[in-house]
Amino acid sequence: MSTMRTRSSSRAAVPRRAPHRRHRDPDRSSTLLLFPAGVVVVLMLASIAVDTSAVFLAQRQLRRACAQAADDAVTALDVAALRRNGDTRLDVDTARRIVRLHLATSTLVAHLDGEPRITVDPDAATVDIVATGTVRPVFGRGVGLGDRKVTAHVRGRLTDRD
After folding, report:
1. Using only C-alpha atoms, what is the Rg of the chain?
2. What is the pTM of this model?
3. What pLDDT is attached to residue 141?
4. How far apart are CA 118 and CA 58, in angstroms?
5. d(Cα 116, Cα 59) in Å, to the nearest integer?
6. Per 3-state DSSP, what percentage of the chain is helix, strand, and coil (rounded to 5)?
7. Nearest in space to 129 (alpha carbons), one of 58, 55, 69, 57
């Protein structure tokens, strides 16, 4: 004989509960608003970091270009004075022309503000260059950052090697 299991009808019916209403958490909707605000803050901080790096790069480029121009300018010897009595004096006009040409052909992030201030001391064989440039922000215009100024002051000196 086979035994078959059947459901017992003697079991009492379980009453169904009313559907549970979830309480809506008020913090859930504020999280929804805070996430885009956090993204905006992170983007603003990233734009400040990128623009600060661009200013630092422009300052280094301007200083390097001025240093190279000064190094080239101190080689502009006054040939007439050198032939006359062996003096190593600088030709002022040639040194200034070399500096202007060098800075005009340099690729810089900063835009030069006018002409650089070039001081040539022919007797001491030194060339001083002071150049100022303006760096425009990459992303900072969107967050209200304006143009930044960078300045480079460099001195080149001709030395004798004995």
Report:
1. 37
2. 0.72
3. 74
4. 20
5. 14
6. 45, 20, 35
7. 69
